Amino acid sequence: MPVRMKDIAADLGISVVTISKVLRDHPDIGEETRQRVLQRVKELHYRPNVTARSLVTGRSYLIGLVVPDLLHPFFAEVAKSLARVIRTRGYSLIIASSEEDPELEEQEIEHMVARGPDGLVIAASTLSSAILQRLDEQQQAYVLIDRKFTGLSANFVGTDDIAVGDLATTHLINRGCKRIAHIRGRENSTGAKRLEGYKRALERGGLNFSDKYVILRETVDIESRLQGNFAMQRLLAMHPKPDGVFCYNDPMAIGAMEAILAAGLRIPKDIAIIGCGNLHYSDLLRVPLSSIDQQSALIGARAGKLMLSIVESKATPQPKSVLLEPHLVERASTARTSRQTAKE
Amino acid sequence: MPVRMKDIAADLGISVVTISKVLRDHPDIGEETRQRVLQRVKELHYRPNVTARSLVTGRSYLIGLVVPDLLHPFFAEVAKSLARVIRTRGYSLIIASSEEDPELEEQEIEHMVARGPDGLVIAASTLSSAILQRLDEQQQAYVLIDRKFTGLSANFVGTDDIAVGDLATTHLINRGCKRIAHIRGRENSTGAKRLEGYKRALERGGLNFSDKYVILRETVDIESRLQGNFAMQRLLAMHPKPDGVFCYNDPMAIGAMEAILAAGLRIPKDIAIIGCGNLHYSDLLRVPLSSIDQQSALIGARAGKLMLSIVESKATPQPKSVLLEPHLVERASTARTSRQTAKE
Questions:
Q1: Least Cα separation, residue B299 to chain A (angstroms)
Q2: How many Å apart are CA B165 and CA B174, to the nearest integer?
Q3: A119 and A209 fall within a common domain
Q4: Which of A151, A248, A144, A246 minimizes the C-alpha distance to A192?
């Protein structure tokens, strides 16, 4: 039987109101009483009842997070920093993975909404904006992370994805690559904008864009390494082969490197590779991987702060968009001088 | 305003009871009615209300998971497979990280219990058994994963950790290592049993056990790579240096490899390395890492099934312990013939 506030009150011979005030840090209470209450609260392992608190505030103190895959380090890092921020105000994180499956993604969101969370943080993968419009109609607060929707005015925290594609591709051009391929993301904002940045950099660098050098696979966030490997095998079968590849994310880049090394080619001499995400271990790989850092921990933290400000404000605030600047991390997978010519 | 069951009933001109029966797959209802209801439920995006369902069943449909760190791929994999299993029966996962901090771990567990989850899944790191006894007194269902407590009869799903230490160490002995060090885990069951397995294997192999070859760092699950690097630096300063190291987990092993390579030594020729966890990318590292596979996905899935059976049974079932067999995955970091002699 958990200890209740009134048990502590009876035990100390003071009122429940006094104890409640101590726990809410109310200035009314003298220091001696405060210490006595806190001491007893600690000894008896008293936990303020979340249900009771919910009745008072009308909040569930639950924030839902929907991501494509928890095993993808980018989303794990977002989840970790998001949880850390919301915990400071007594909120818990419910997590669901959509596994890049449109039906599952919709189901998971509906299932979460049915729980009545104070807010949802969504990294959409296959989602249509109709579902988000429904959330708007139901006045369900939500923050999108990583993937944005055009034509929808929603709270958003993510990276400038055009800059991601531009930075990565420009870096390959600066390293002397002439035939730069792109293993791209899905047809959502992240995938489309990184592709756009890639095209912009090619144009600025005076290189031709060719459709056949852009490869799209069925999934990009789950089984990414395998998908990156398959995509690279297709690129290796082309004549001429690319001499540089910008991959949508690091796990896909790791798969692409596998395929290149398995074909007996050298990285970066024959083909230079750059990914995105700057994941752990990227620098300890067989060929340390150059990457675009998206500041994943910061995305989670900023989403958490934005969510708290929405949930705890009395009126509905205007939607806010937070765009973080990506930056280049150079490692061995692109470390070639611009004079080296790639072998065909 | 979300659609309610009675809106659908009014819309179709049938009773709420009929709709409820359709949704519970009750045999009373004719196929035509069933199809009409399901069709309308889909069109109107009706979601059975979790709160209403909770009132009937007395369950919250929340399962809490407390892990040291979500970013550690082992725990991310456990979380993913656990969520997948409980989702099939309409349960959601709340996640908290203890960050290997005793106070935070206790707080997070108390905070979760205050939410009234149907069950908790706990990967304890610094936890004392007193907290678990309190959960027992409060009749809070829980399943321990990965770390066990002696003298406590609790539900448990994990790996045979003595076998982990034995397998890893025996493998190093078979590869000709004579001075085998251990970068160990904390003073909990996982850390203690892997150490025990290491000692057993040394004894069976006729090698001396020496305290100075066993290194313990402040944390093992957070900042593991850095901690592994520091531990290895201490081992490298010894005379004679070890020629084989069994590391508590793969991230620590990766840090140890960094330190060895930075010192200009070769893996496995000078020092062979084996970790535990068989994490993603282990085979694409600069030196692909041998490891003991703990079947992390299976741990999550089995914990989920065990939790569902506890939560959904009428009586409190007898505590059950599920111990999975680890197995060896050999890669380049231990690939030397037993005849090679390590350089001092």
A1: 15
A2: 14
A3: no
A4: A248
A156 vs A147: CA distance, rounded Å: 8
Is A109 found in the same domain as A251?
no
In the structure, what pLDDT confidence band is assigned to residue A126 with cuts at 50, 70 and 90? confident
Cα angle A153, A159, A161 (rounded to 5 degrees) comes to 95
Using an 8 Å CB-CB cutoff, list chain A residues near B232.
Answer: none
Contacts of A69 in chain B (CB under 8 A): 80
Are B202 and B275 part of one and the same domain?
Answer: yes
Q: Is residue B53 part of a domain?
A: no
pLDDT band at B2 (very low <50, low <70, confident <90, very high): low
Cross-chain Cβ contact B87/A110 below 8 Å: no
pLDDT at res. B15: 86
Partner-chain contact B80 A93, CB within 8 Å: no
Residues with Cβ within 8 Å of B173's Cβ and at least 6 positions away in sequence, in order, are: B180, B201, B202, B205, B207, B244
CA dist., res. B95 & res. A101, Å (int): 22
Asked if the model's pLDDT at residue B127 lies above 90, the reply is: no
Say how many CB pairs under 8 Å bridge A and B.
125
Q: Do residues B332 and B320 both lie within one domain?
A: no
Is residue A22 within 8 A of residue A34, CB to CB? The reply is yes
Whether residue B2 has a cis bond before it, omega within 30° of 0: no
Interface with A, mutate which of B47, B121, B139 (most A CBs under 10 A): B47
Same domain, A336 and A209: yes
> Residue A15 CB: number of other CB atoms within 10 A?
11
Question: What radius of gyration, in Å, describes the C-alpha atoms of chain A?
Answer: 25
List chain A residues with CB under 8 Å of B285. 281, 284-286
Assigned token pair, B119: 């069950």
Task: Tell me if B284 and A280 make a contact (CB, 8 A cut-off).
Answer: no
Identify the weakest region by mean pLDDT among A41-45, A52-56, A303-307, B271-275. A52-56
CB within 8 Å: A93 and B95? yes
Helical (H) or strand (E) element with A293: strand A290-293
Question: What CATH number does the domain containing B28 carry?
Answer: 1.10.260.40
Residue of A nearest to B285 (CA): A285
Token couple for B55: 């009132």
Position B304 in a domain: yes
In chain B, which residue's Cα lies nearest the Cα of A89?
Answer: B111
pLDDT of residue A331: 93
- How many structural domains is chain A composed of? 3
Contact B2 A254 (CB under 8 A): no
Distance CA B310, CA B322 (A): 14
Cβ <8 Å between B70 and A62 = no
Residues A119 and A259 grouped into a single domain = no
Answer yes or no: do A102 and A232 share one domain: no
Q: Is residue A53 part of a domain?
A: no
A213-236 pLDDT per residue, tens = 999 998 888 888 999 999 999 999
Residues A230 and A334 in one domain: yes
Lowest mean pLDDT among A208-212, B250-254, B334-338: B334-338
Establish if A70 belongs to a structural domain: yes
How far is the alpha carbon of B128 from chain A, nearest alpha carbon, in Å? 15
> Which CATH number characterizes residue A114's domain?
3.40.50.2300
Q: What are phi and psi of A135, to 5 degrees?
A: -60, -40
Which domain range does residue B13 map to?
Answer: 5-48
